Amino acid sequence: MPTPTHPGLDIDEWSTRFHLLGDPTRLRLLAAMHHAGPGAATVGDLADAAGITNTAASQALRVLRLQGWVHDERVGRTVRYTLTDSTVHQLLHLMGATHN
Prior knowledge:
By secondary structure, the protein is of the alpha+beta class. It has one domain (11-95): Arc Repressor Mutant, subunit A (Orthogonal Bundle). It is built from 5 helices and 3 strands, in the order H-H-E-H-H-E-E-H. The protein has helices at 11-21, 24-36, 43-50, 54-67, 86-95, and strands at residues 41-42, 70-75, 78-83. The longest helix has 14 residues, at 54-67. 23% of the residues are buried.
């Protein structure tokens, strides 16, 4: 719902975005997906890039997937992840993140 003092600005939505981005693990995973490109990153790839276990990566990716920021696609026994949220994509660029 837009804030009465700021029409068109959804404070609650932005608060949720900043909360999710405020977690270093999730932010590392998003940056790694962004760098790898669409469909290029597996859980193992992302865990290695973030310096965490596959289990921790899977848990964080679940949160991002439920938020609609990440899409997963199964190819055989492998699941590949893609960053799908354009706002997060733009924010990562503002932070200096690059593509592969």
